[in-house]
């Protein structure tokens, strides 16, 4: 009897240790290293005149006459992915997510010695948005166009494609683009509040004007700009971006008017109506709902708790569906090895965005002493965080192919990223001009690995069966985008701090057993 009891106790302890090991895999990945690399990626994507302290040295200046045809200075900003179009909507979302990462995990980023780099990555975007916002109701939305750009395979330093710029204004408005740009600048204003108050103020000024422009002239930007339609059409419309912008403006200004907007329009704009399983450059509802839930932590928001609780119930829905604790039909699909799977083309963008929301949500649960209550069970903050970690660890190599989908991280990562600059010999090494179709013939079609490693890029990633084909023409899987990596900055920072905490926690756990 006693013997059996002892055995069971040991058995339980073993199970517990195994479980802990599975959930924490302490020391398996170096998240600080991943954080450092993720920030380097934004230097590879820089357009314009590169600064003296540029660390990614295979890149050179590019796009130095952007906007010239239209008489506006649009030099700078980011190329969105493996091509050279500057698309406003995904660029703004990238900057919002970088800023949110710093807002949540500033201490951890600083402890890893990366705060300066993170702030530079944000400022490279916001400096461009300031240039692009040439008057209160004019915002330049795009430079170059997908069709002509994709016709060529060139380094950005050799670009010969059209650099025509497109704008939204009163006659051709775009509330989603204006809203996301306002959100990005308001969030960035919070990042720079103490270190650069003048800049922070300037960003707020632009953000407020852009929000007003978006709100006063309500229209989807792809209804005004034909050119964005086949690349970044706004399928979810603009109501999510307007609510999202208002909430970021409220956080940045403490002005009650913005909060009222979020509360009063919660219903009519779908903020408390849409239950989503995707968070992306297009669909902001889940992020908005989480951000609104966090207001519940402050006493001063008590008078709005009814609406805020409704926002929270939709945030819960998103988290439950990621954890596969909703009813089956409402769960996010998982690959056999456990990766969240939304769709075939660039699935990793949804994984990194979900990991960020889950990580922040786990902090929220911990602070509020709450649990996530789902149709299919309850989860505490540790389980939510463990799930986020499972996604991040999959990204870094804990998957059937032992492949890190973060380029340049670990011993095995994609070698043929679908990226013009990375796949062609560096401009620094060969300044000879490489023409539009010459790039396709000489570089795109090669079997060999890319000559330049696009460090920190998160590629589109595997299919629904965890398969991945490392070919340059497999752009659904091997292309990377700025908004894939941006949310990882926050998540890597969170886990880089966990690295130090895990061991202590494990010991505590065993001791109390
Ligand atoms: C993690 O990587 C960084 C380099 O980015 C290195 O300095 C550090 O020593 C590594 N930490 C561990 C525990 O290996
Ligand atoms: C991945 O690593 C594991 C453990 O080292 C090994 O057993 C497995 O064969 C590897 N798989 C591939 C595809 O390399």
UniProtKB/TrEMBL annotation:
Annotated signal peptide? 1-28
Catalytic residues per the record? 418
Looking at the record's lineage, which domain of life comes first?
Eukaryota
What keywords is this UniProt entry annotated with? Carbohydrate metabolism, Cellulose degradation, Glycosidase, Hydrolase, Polysaccharide degradation, Signal
Pfam families in the record: Glyco_hydro_9 (PF00759)
A GO molecular-function term, please?
A: cellulase activity
Q: What class of enzyme is it?
A: hydrolase
EC number of the protein:
3.2.1.4
Entry's PROSITE patterns?
GH9_2
**Residue ranges occupied by any Glycoside hydrolase family domain in the UniProt entry:** 31-491
Q: What's a GO biological-process term for it? A: cellulose catabolic process
Q: Which reaction does it catalyse?
A: Endohydrolysis of (1->4)-beta-D-glucosidic linkages in cellulose, lichenin and cereal beta-D-glucans
Family statement drawn from the similarity comment of this UniProt entry: Belongs to the glycosyl hydrolase 9 (cellulase E) family.
What's the protein called, per UniProt? Endoglucanase
Per the UniProt record, the source organism is Malus domestica
């Amino acid at each position: 009897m006693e013997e059996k009891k002892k055995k069971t106790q040991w058995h339980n302890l073993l199970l517990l240790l195994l479980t802990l090991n599975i959930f924490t895999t302490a020391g398996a990945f170096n998240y600080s290293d991943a954080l450092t690399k993720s920030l380097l990626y934004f230097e590879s994507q820089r357009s314009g005149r590169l600064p003296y302290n540029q660390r990614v040295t295979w890149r050179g200046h590019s796009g130095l006459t952007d906007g010239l045809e239209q008489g506006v200075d649009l030099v700078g900003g980011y190329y969105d992915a493996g091509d050279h179009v500057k698309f406003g909507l995904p660029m703004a979302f990238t900057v919002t997510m970088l800023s949110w990462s710093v807002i949540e995990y500033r201490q951890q980023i600083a402890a890893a010695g990366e705060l300066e780099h993170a702030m530079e990555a944000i400022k490279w975007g916001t400096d461009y948005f300031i240039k692009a916002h040439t008057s209160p109701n004019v915002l330049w939305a795009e430079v170059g166009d997908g069709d002509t750009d994709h016709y060529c395979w060139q380094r950005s330093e050799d670009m010969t494609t059209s650099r025509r710029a497109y704008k939204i204004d009163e006659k051709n408005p775009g509330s989603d683009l204006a809203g996301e740009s306002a959100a990005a600048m308001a969030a960035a204003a919070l990042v720079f509040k103490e270190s650069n108050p003048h800049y922070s103020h300037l960003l707020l000024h632009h953000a407020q004007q852009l929000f007003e422009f978006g709100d006063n002239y309500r229209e989807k930007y792809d209804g005004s700009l034909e050119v964005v339609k086949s690349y970044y059409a706004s399928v979810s419309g603009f109501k999510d971006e307007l609510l999202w912008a208002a909430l970021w403006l409220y956080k940045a200004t403490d002005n009650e008017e913005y909060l009222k907007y979020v509360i009063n329009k919660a219903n009519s704009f779908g903020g408390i109506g849409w239950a989503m399983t995707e968070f992306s450059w297009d669909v902001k509802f889940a992020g908005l709902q989480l951000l609104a839930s966090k207001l519940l932590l402050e006493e001063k928001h008590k008078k709005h708790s009814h609406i805020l609780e409704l926002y929270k119930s939709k945030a819960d829905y998103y988290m439950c569906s990621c954890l596969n604790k909703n009813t089956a039909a409402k769960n996010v699909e998982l690959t056999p090895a456990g990766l969240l799977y939304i769709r075939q083309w660039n699935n990793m963008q949804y994984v990194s965005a979900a990991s960020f929301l889950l990580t922040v949500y786990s902090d929220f649960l911990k602070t509020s002493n709450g649990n996530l209550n789902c149709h299919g069970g309850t989860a505490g903050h540790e389980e939510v965080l463990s799930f986020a970690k499972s996604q991040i660890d999959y990204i870094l190599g804990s998957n059937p192919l032992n492949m890190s989908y973060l380029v340049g991280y670990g011993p095995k990562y994609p070698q043929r990223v679908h990226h013009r600059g990375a796949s062609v010999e560096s401009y620094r090494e060969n300044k000879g001009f490489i023409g539009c179709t010459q790039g396709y013939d000489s570089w795109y079609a090669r079997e060999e690995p890319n000559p330049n490693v696009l460090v920190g890029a998160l590629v589109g990633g595997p299919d629904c069966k965890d398969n991945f084909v490392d070919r340059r023409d497999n752009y659904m899987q091997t292309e990377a985008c700025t908004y894939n990596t941006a949310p990882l900055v926050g998540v890597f920072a969170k886990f880089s701090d966990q690295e130090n905490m895990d061991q202590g926690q494990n010991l505590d756990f065993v001791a109390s057993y």
